[in-house]
Write a structure and sequence with these properties.
Mean pLDDT: 86
Strand order of the largest sheet: 2-3-4-1-5-6-7-8-9
Order of helices and strands: EHEHHEEHEHEHEHHHEE
Helix content: 40-55%
Number of domains: 2
Number of helices: 9
């Protein structure tokens, strides 16, 4: 089972993002979808998603109650309705990071990805005010998260997991501040630790603006934008290593079969009688293995297509997505 931890202070849009993401991913995007595998959790989440999407309900009543406590949900990741992985989704209140609470640090152990929610409605004004906005955010919550991540790295002797910075409520960002370079500069100023080389493994970060709909705060419809990209980022990283291992294994398998077939065919007539024929793959079996490799690589390319427009940083350096 893979684990995704999402964190954000009250009002950052963390729970709304989760609902909007489920709204879109239960229907599926490019063959990938999510399934809630607990009936009680499904009923709760379904009610929240329907309320969020009901434009006839007064705006203040559409929003889910802020999650002021740790909550965990079990999800299944599907591709073309076939299960790829089980996901543990851990919703962690940002306020818990403040002070000396080690629960968050312990949660990062074994996490495959960390989602950090930043309230996009904070980005108001023009570019001359960006530094002040970033300073205010860093002093309010960015500093605590950076400190917790460094403590987690020190405690485990390893790096913290890959991070996706979610700029929520992107539709509420001032138009002058919506360009990608400004968003990237803001994220780097809010979480400087994420963009430096650490003591353990490489620090991997992406940044993704998300929105539930341009007019939803004024009573408009639920129209999630980009909400699938963070989960696809996490899935891509988890599947990338697995696919590389599978492809390597099967290609070695094919190569060994070819070598055994060649060695056997080069034997003399009597040599073939004396030596038993090795377990050589038939042409049908070879084709089946090749199809498995092609399917695994094709699935990975489908995921890559959904995330490769996002910026990717390794130790603060902008890099290309691995394929």
């Amino acid at each position: 089972m893979s684990k995704i931890v999402i964190i954000g202070t009250l009002g950052s849009g963390k729970t709304c993002y989760f609902y909007g993401m489920l709204h879109k991913m239960q229907r599926g995007v490019s063959g990938f979808s999510l399934r809630i595998n607990d009936s009680e959790a499904y009923r709760k989440l379904r009610a929240g998603i329907l309320r969020l999407g009901d434009a006839s309900v007064p705006v203040d009543e559409r929003w889910p109650d802020p999650s002021a406590k740790l909550e965990t949900y079990n999800l299944d990741l599907l591709h073309n309705m076939n299960k790829l992985d089980s996901l543990e989704w851990v919703d962690y209140p940002g306020e818990y990071v403040m002070g000396v609470d080690d629960k968050f640090i312990d949660l990062l152990d074994g996490a495959n990805c960390l989602f950090v929610c930043v309230d996009g409605s904070l980005l108001q004004g023009d570019k001359d005010e960006l530094e002040d906005i970033a300073d205010d955010f860093y002093n309010h919550s960015g500093m605590d998260l950076c400190n917790a991540l460094m403590r987690a790295e020190e405690k485990s002797g390893n790096a913290f997991p890959p991070v996706c910075i979610l700029l929520t409520k992107y539709d509420a960002v001032s138009p002058e501040l919506q360009d990608s370079e400004t968003i990237k500069a803001f994220a780097k100023a809010c979480f400087p630790v994420l963009f430096r080389k650490g003591k353990g493994k490489d620090r991997m970060v992406t940044i993704c603006p998300v929105s539930l709909g341009k007019d939803i705060a004024e009573g408009g419809k639920l129209r999630p934008k980009n909400v699938e990209r963070p989960i696809c980022f996490a899935t891509y990283l988890m599947q990338y290593a697995a696919v590389q291992e599978i492809v390597k294994k099967y290609r070695n398998f094919l190569e060994r079969s070819e070598q055994m077939a060649k060695a056997y065919n080069e034997k003399s007539f009597f040599g073939r009688i004396i030596s038993p024929k090795p377990p050589i793959l038939s042409e049908e079996q070879k084709q089946a293995v090749i199809e498995l490799i092609n399917t695994a690589e094709s699935d990975l390319k489908d995921l890559l297509a959904m995330v490769n427009s996002l910026p990717l940083y390794i130790n603060g350096e902008s890099v290309n997505w691995p394929d």
